[in-house]
Amino acid sequence: MKLATRMSRLGTETAFEVLMKARALEAQGREIIHLEIGEPDFDTPANIVEAGVKALREGQTHYTPSAGIPQLREAIAEEIATTRGIEVHPDQVVVTPGGKPIMFFTILALCEQGDEVIYPNPGFPIYGSMINFVGATPVPVPLLMEKDFCFDIEEFKSLVSPKTKMIILNSPHNPTGGVLTKEDLQAIAEAAIENDAVVLSDEIYSRMVYEGEFASITRFPGLEERTIILDGFSKTYAMTGWRMGYGVMPHWLAAQVTNLMVNSNSCTAAFSQWAAVEALKGPQDESRKMVEAFHQRRDVIVDGLNQIHGFRCLRPKGAFYVFPNVEGTGRSSQEMEDFLLNEAGVATLSGTSFGEYGEGFLRFSYANSVENIQKALGRIGEAVTKP
Ligand code: PLP
Questions:
Q1: How far is the CA of 289 from the centre of ligand 1 (A)?
Q2: Which of 7, 12, 113, 247 is most buried, with most CB under 10 Å away?
């Protein structure tokens, strides 16, 4: 049987492949420290779990409206209105199984052959995968360590043109932890308006900012009507397995994305939606505590990595990743990923998993205990200096 040609254009996320390699080593009795996968190591807060269980017990085990239950769409509209300082109607909210489908659906709904899509590189691999899949042209903006992994605005301006259909932003950023400044956002907003481009603003790490305040591009005049905010519950409330995310977008687009939900998932799991209502409306202390823990771990990992021969690491302002330069070790990113997994028992991701501009870098997720991070640092230091 022959696959449809479009399948050859679909990329993947190698984090899951490294996880499998690490699990195979564990099956042989090796002890691996997991710093590869981007998920909080905390349990979902108890009040949220209870709300999910209660919903199941009360019979919330059926289909829901495809865009989500009204109670959740209202809670999300309120949350986005308060945190982004904009007016949002519940009709603009589409609830999806995780934030990822919002990339899939909006790129599918808006972009096609002849359209250019600007996206960060290194960046979340699904952006490039989806742009290629729908036959649009990927236009990467290189993120450089010397520029704090922010957009080089002059370079960005040279790439944007009337052919640009969409600009993808991700701040705080995976894999670098970089946060776009207000000046960057303003320049990007102006370019989007000038070239009539849509912005897909992936704000999944919006609560995880350690210095300064989170800013969304929607705060700039004229951007609300051309921006899709992608956010969700996986990171903020340690709910990766519940599959709960959403997009907030103009009405006309929300109707089309809802139709893509009708054609694919029908709806997001009912009990997960009720748990999400509790996540937004209930106490926020557990979520805040997680952010404080990430902040502390960030400092431990950055200080530790900078003491290892051949590593240079910035102190990122957000998310839970660090992206050190490892060129000084004399190994390529992929070699270093394999070396650390096999020799030090530490699972990390090669920077090239996030695009060609990730060469020379490794991504560490510090969603792990301080104790494990310290142990990993010790093992890496030893492995790197071994003759
Ligand atoms: N966006 C970014 C930048 C991510 O790193 C992730 C997950 O790793 C997602 C979106 C999607 O997360 P989920 O589908 O679990 O909500």
A1: 21
A2: 247
Give, in words, the CATH class of 62-281.
alpha beta
Domains 5-44+285-385 and 62-281 agree in fold: no
Q: How far does Cα 114 stand from its chain's mean position?
A: 27
Token pair for residue 230? 């992608």
Ligand 1 near 99 CB (within 6 A) = yes
Q: Could you count the other beta carbons within 10 Å of the beta carbon of residue 163?
A: 14
Query: How much is the mean pLDDT over the chain?
Result: 96
**Percent of the chain whose pLDDT exceeds 70:** 100
What is the full DSSP assignment across 260-309?
HHHHTTSS--HHHHHHHHHHHHS--HHHHHHHHHHHHHHHHHHHHHTTST
Q: Which atom of ligand 1 is nearest to the CA of 245?
A: 16
Write the pLDDT tens digit of every residue in 162-176: 999 999 999 999 999
Section 22-40 average pLDDT = 94
Q: How far is the CA of 387 from the centre of ligand 1 (A)?
A: 39
| Residue 138: strand, helix, or coil | strand
The contacts of residue 360 (CB under 8 Å, 6+ apart) are 325, 326, 327, 332, 333, 351
Instruction: Kindly state if the Cβ of 234 falls inside 6 Å of ligand 1.
Output: yes
| CATH of the domain spanning 5-44+285-385, picked from 3.30.360.10, 3.40.50.150, 3.40.50.2300, 3.90.1150.10 | 3.90.1150.10
Q: Has residue 267 got a pLDDT over 80?
A: yes
CA of 121 to the centre of ligand 1 (A): 16
Query: What residue ranges do the domains of the chain occupy?
Result: 5-44+285-385, 62-281
pLDDT band for position 85 (cuts 50, 70, 90): very high
pLDDT at 386: 81
Between the CA of 364 and the centroid of ligand 1 the distance, in Å, is 16
Q: Is the Cβ–Cβ distance between 349 and 35 less than 8 Å? A: no
Task: Calculate mean pLDDT across residues 321-333.
Answer: 97
**Residue 15: predicted pLDDT:** 85
Q: Quick one: which atom of ligand 1 is closest to the CA of 101? A: 14
Task: Give the model's pLDDT for residue 14.
Answer: 85
Biggest CA–CA distance in the chain, Å, is 63
Residue 208: the pLDDT is 96
Establish whether residue 122 lines the binding site of ligand 1, counting it when its CB lies within 6 angstroms of any ligand atom: no
Res. 387: pLDDT tops 80: no
Cβ of 13 below 6 Å from ligand 1:
no
